[in-house]
Design goal:
The complex is a heterodimer of chains A (143) and B (310).
Chain A (H helix, E strand, L loop, with lengths): L1 H6 L2 E6 L5 H8 L13 E2 L8 E5 L6 H11 L5 E5 L1 H5 L13 H8 L4 E5 L6 H16 L2
Parallel strand pairs in A: 1-2, 1-3, 3-4, 4-5
Chain B lengths: L2 H33 L9 H10 L11 H27 L8 H22 L3 H31 L17 H17 L11 H4 L10 H25 L7 H24 L5 H28 L6
Helix pairs in contact in B: 1-3, 1-8, 1-9, 2-8, 3-4, 3-8, 4-5, 5-6, 5-10, 6-8, 6-10, 8-9
The chains are: A alpha/beta (143), B mainly alpha (310).
Chain lengths: 143, 310
């Protein structure tokens, strides 16, 4: 069953207050040059269909409960992909008044055993995201 | 045919159609990728998708009616499997059908969309309810042109309501060609493909009727859609395009027609934007329905005066 999960990761894109830069780079993955579908990954419209939550943005206070709810609604096993330096460590917005706990802290508050893959960069290159996806597949092998 | 024969036919036809349908799902995605100058998924992609969905968690929303929500996809799949059994036995063993099996097929083909509506309404999610109401309008739109197109096929086979009554091929006449075009467009709507995918519209209503499904029920929906993708072209070939003749050349032609219709579905899907609800209803009722009535009239005239090409 792990084989099937590795070969068909469906991605749901959650924006938790990103500046749209990472989102454009996520879209880049669907274009002919990078074509993520050859790894079996597709973008889906509902978190209930998803295996990967691609989280962009610094996780503001408003977005944090929504992110946690989206994670709860994703059928397990699933992978969280924190894309961009904001999603990894809140970037330049650390200690700002409107920030929530950070993507990984917020997710771990719901599920301490969550699989989180970090993709640093501002914005990360599509190659970095593909590398992260492959790393996620390696992690799934150990489940 | 005894009970074992019937059950055997049902199981064999559903498994076979499922295999064909999953292959066509991959074919559809690969062709889409080629249209967009991408590489596309590997051949085992639909199998991996289905296996993965079966191994995942099933989530039922707290607002959902549990039984209806979970049973609706299974009924839809069973209905399309039954259509597959009737069609394949009419194609492979001509004469085993019964009078009126075309009507049974038309009714059974209505069950999968109705079950998507049922499941969408049972899930208790606003997005799914909007999707279900759109699906209802879609059914109201395409059913009339679809019936009219099939009626032309019935007229051409000398008013026989039995599938696989091989006579003159309806497609090679004016009314038959019009009916085929109508049927292809109705097939596109029945399969819920772009431009008629208002019911699931990912970017407006988040997959609409399917928004709340996850895990095994979603896998059954996936299988049901794959099955419809295999069943609808088969119905069109049987009614309009002469079915299967048991010669090497006939079998090759049959496979060619089958693949051609699936390629048409894919190409229409890739070259059109999604239509609005009102545009779809206008298109089917004011555009295609009068065309269908015209085709029926032409076919009746051709029948009455024995003119082959009408």
């Amino acid at each position: 069953m792990n084989w099937a999960l590795r070969k068909s990761l469906w991605v749901y894109h959650v924006n938790t207050g990103a500046c749209n830069n990472c989102d454009i780079e996520v879209l880049e993955l669907l274009t002919p040059k990078y074509d993520i579908e050859r790894l079996g990954m597709v973008l889906v419209g509902s978190p209930r269909h998803a295996d990967v939550l691609a989280v962009t943005g610094a996780c503001t206070r408003q977005a944090q409960p929504r992110l946690q709810e989206a994670y709860r609604q994703t059928p397990k096993p699933c992978v969280v992909m924190a894309i961009g330096v904001c999603a990894n460590a809140q970037g330049i917005f650390t200690e700002a008044y409107h920030m929530g706990a950070g993507v990984d802290v917020a997710i771990r508050a719901v599920d301490p055993d969550a699989i989180i893959v970090y993709v640093p960069g501002c914005p990360p290159k599509p190659e970095a995201m593909i590398a992260a996806a492959v790393k996620a597949m390696e992690l799934i092998k150990t489940l | 045919m005894n009970a074992f024969g019937i059950i055997g036919t049902y199981i064999a036809a559903s498994v076979g159609t499922l295999a064909i349908g999953l292959f066509f799902r991959w074919f559809d995605r690969k062709a889409t990728a080629m249209v967009q100058w991408r590489k596309g998924p590997p051949w085992y992609q639909p199998i991996a998708d289905v296996l993965k969905l079966f191994s995942k968690e099933t989530l039922v929303p707290s607002t959902a009616r549990r039984t209806g929500f979970l049973i609706a996809p299974a009924i839809g799949l069973a209905a399309s499997a039954l259509v597959a059994a009737i069609l394949w036995s009419a194609v492979l063993m001509p004469g085993t059908g019964f009078v009126g099996d075309l009507i049974v097929v038309v009714y059974l083909l209505l069950i999968p969309p109705v079950m998507t509506i049922f499941g969408g309404l049972a899930s208790g999610s606003p997005q799914a309810v909007v999707g279900a109401s759109r699906e209802m309008k879609l059914i109201l739109s395409y059913e009339l042109p679809f019936f009219l197109a099939l009626l032309v096929g019935v007229i051409h086979s000398d008013w026989s309501l039995q599938l696989g009554q091989v006579g003159a091929v309806p497609l090679y006449s004016i009314s038959g060609a019009i009916a085929m075009v109508l049927a292809i467009i109705a097939m596109q709507a029945k399969l819920g493909q772009v431009p008629f995918d208002i019911a699931e519209a990912e970017c407006e209503i988040m997959s609409g009727v399917y928004a709340e499904y996850s895990g095994p029920p979603l896998a059954i929906i996936y299988l049901g859609r794959a099955m419809m993708l295999a069943v609808m072209p088969l119905l069109l070939i049987t009614v309009f395009w002469g079915g299967l003749t048991a010669t090497p050349w006939g079998i090759a032609a049959f496979i060619g027609k089958y693949v051609l219709l699936v390629v048409l579905v894919t190409l229409i899907r890739n070259t059109n934007p999604r239509l609005r609800i009102d545009q779809i209803m206008k298109f089917f009722w004011l555009g295609l329905a009068p065309l269908g009535i015209a085709a029926v009239v032409i076919a009746v005239i051709g029948r009455a005066w024995a003119i082959k090409w009408l």
